[in-house]
Hints:
By secondary structure, this protein is an all-alpha fold.
Amino acid sequence: MTRRIKLLLASLGLLFCLLPAPAMAAEDVLSGACQSDAAKQSSACQTTGEDPLTGTSGIIYKTARLISFAAGIVAVITVMVGGFMYITSGGDAGKAENGRKAVIAAAVGLAIIALAQPILAFVLNALN
C-alpha cells in the first residue's frame, strides 16, 4: 500500500518537473496583429493582462489544483484504510504495523500536497 502511495507521489512530482516551459517570445511575434482599429475590436485582441498558461486562472494552476484535489482524496482514503487496518489488526503486530505505516505515509502525502500549492505559486511568480 505504501509502495503505491510512494509511486503516486513520485509520478506527480515527475509530472510537475516535465511541464513545458512557457513561450517567452509569443508577445513579440503577435505584437503587430492587433494594431488596426478593426482588429482591436475583436475578442482575440482584448486581453486581460494575465498569462493563460501561468496566470492565476491559467492552465498550470488549474491542473495543479485538480491533481492536488485528486491526490488529497486518495490520501484521505488511505488514512481511513490504514486506520481500519490498524483497528482490525486484532493484536497481530504485522497488521498493526502495516496500518500505522499507511497512515504515516498518507499524512506525509497530505503535507506534500499542502505545500505544493505555495511552492508552485512561488515558482510561477518568479517566472513572470
